[in-house]
Amino acid sequence: MDEQSAKRRIEELREEIARHDRYYRIDNSPKISDDDFDLLVRELRSLESEFPRFRVPDSPTERVGSDSSEGFKSVGHLSPMLSLDNVFDTSELEDFDSRLRKILGKEGDLDYCVEPKIDGAGISAVYENGKLSRLLTRGDGESGDDITCNAFVIKNLPLKLSGNSFPKLLEIRGECYMERGEFERIREEARREYEARELSKARERDFFSDSSPAVDFSEIERKLPSNPRNLAAGTMKLLDRSVLEKRSLKAIFYSIGASEGFVFERQSDLPGILEGLGLPAVNWFGTAKGSKGAFEKICELEEVRSEFPFDTDGAVVKLDDCSLHAKAGMTSHSPRWAVAWKYRAKRAKTKLLSITIQVGRTGAVTPVAELEPIRLSGTMVARATLHNAGYISEKDIRVGDEVVVEKAGEIIPAVIEPVAESRGPESVPFEFPTHCPECGTLLKRYGEKMLYRCPNAECPPQIVERLSHFASRDCMDIRGLGDKTVGQLVEHLGVRDFADIYSLTREKILSLKEFEKKSADNLVKSIEDSKNRELWRLIFGLGILEIGERFAKILAKRFGSLDALMGASAEEISAIDGFGGASKNSSSVRALSIRAFFDDPHNAETIEKLRKAGLNFKDSSETLFNPSVQKSPFFGKSFAITGTLESMGRSRAKTLIENFGGRISSSVTKGTDALIAAKGSNGSKMRNAQEFGTRIISEGEFLEMLESSEKLAGGIEGESEQMTLF
Length: 726
Description:
Layout: H1 3-25, H2 34-50, E1 74-76, E2 86-87, H3 90-104, E3 111-118, E4 121-128, E5 131-137, E6 143-145, E7 169-177, H4 180-205, H5 217-223, H6 228-236, H7 241-244, E8 250-260, H8 270-276, E9 286-289, H9 290-304, E10 312-319, H10 325-328, E11 338-342, E12 346-359, E13 365-376, E14 379-385, H11 389-395, E15 402-408, E16 412-418, E17 444-446, E18 451-453, H12 460-471, H13 483-492, H14 498-501, H15 506-510, H16 517-529, H17 535-541, H18 549-559, H19 562-567, H20 570-574, H21 589-599, H22 601-613, E19 638-642, H23 650-659, E20 663-664, E21 674-677, H24 684-692, E22 695-698, H25 699-713
Parallel strand pairs: 2-11, 19-20, 19-21, 21-22
Antiparallel strand pairs: 1-6, 3-9, 3-10, 4-5, 4-7, 7-8, 10-11, 12-13, 12-15, 13-14, 15-16, 17-18
């Protein structure tokens, strides 16, 4: 590239990056992905390195982008709040390590601390004599917007540090984020409000029409918040307190700016020290030697980050020895002793050969892209999701297009966008079918996500999908009833509903291909065993629209029996926390969906057949099949967990507690019976437990409780030795 071409491209990149930086930081509405933005910055940095005479001090590669906006006073940070340089592969990580060792004059491996990179909005909190004096956004790194007046919306941000000894001055940096559950709640409420508003407008517009009012639901989807990060950043700067009071944000802190009377030697010590002050710190970190060890920790983090309640978009690798940070120094943009590893979704281009339509168990009609096979993340991809009709229309995806395919989360292939410039003149927009491709029934749009659905419950694919879901491991756990076997049951034995499964005999099963005596006996036994499954599994297995595993568990515990749930009104169901409608007088979509399911005569008939077959209709927390479990120290109690358990993961601990009749709470409240505290835990949950007088249990005591409960559940004698902890 000649100098004139390079100069033009550098100027174009600076303008484009500045524009997208504003979309991201100010408007909280990015137009391109993080990966695409990073590629623009990398291209600019490469050109500036090749043509240094065109480098300028205010280039995006030399400064931190600003998130400052009108309505808030700009206040200077006590120390610069910098960004991090990014690396995308092991060679770049090795280059970072090599440069750092050269600067420090070190021959051997350096010690690193690896932490999750939270996908939130940067904040800086200043505590003076233990009290919060101000809260700032990142701004341009030198100064930020003063959002102290909105600090109350960050629910885990203490106004006063814990303990009797705290620093005279502490400037602490972190991320403000919104948990995925809170994001979905706000998004659902916004959708209901938009739909009600648009429906009202449509009714006024079509007042004299006999047909149903037309509403563009795809337009509503485009108005909804796109992700938790953008909504968190926007919420921090809201000026309407009435809206702020209905929302909840969280914070995580991970680095120190200016301070007086605050000392720590290693980055890996910081999370524990912060928790001791009552400050929320990173929930996962690992130490490693050298770039190879750091990469291993990055891979470990990749395995578990989906379990976090917040989004992450990478890992942060920091020099663990804090005494070397000053010697390593920093640029005007970033510290030299830390770098961010960005997890990048794998993408590739291929041809969209056709679009097929699948019908699911709830009747949802889903478009699937049939692709020219291409290798992606080590596997051949020939099919990918297109999400729904609105997605195809919004992206203008057409059969015959060259399309960009991404393996989201390294698991599910999805079509991201078409390569429109390669499209031929014969290309035409895709027309979504109006009738079910399987049974020919006219499609309708309903349900909380307003997807196209086939309303015919007798549609063959729906029957197979419903039965497969009912028998799945997450529901009734009937081993041996996979999709292939279910298909045979439907086609050859006339199975049409859940109850028909329980009329299957050994002789009927043996009439199917590929079944021998042993496999038939195993299936009969598995079907019989499923009659004693927990109530929530049955509720989940029924396939009620909008009711997944989490809500099935809530319903089972709230009503205690299927009969009580069947007799509950929409208002009673809607009153359950998390089920509520948009207003006090409305019932939630889920509540109405539950009522519609049980009011359907065919479903009522099926449920009576299930009753006669002997299925459990009661919640195990009320009437456990093994009465001894009711004597478990977990039974009927509420538990919270803090810190990282050495013996097991948090999800495993949660499952065990629930198996013995206990409940898990994400926070410590007055209603929490006990806090299980891992070694070294000293954070906000501990502080709340001490404030409420909640019992604090060590990991050792927790394991003893599990052992006691397992003996009780197994019918082992020696009840006099059981622990009485409450």
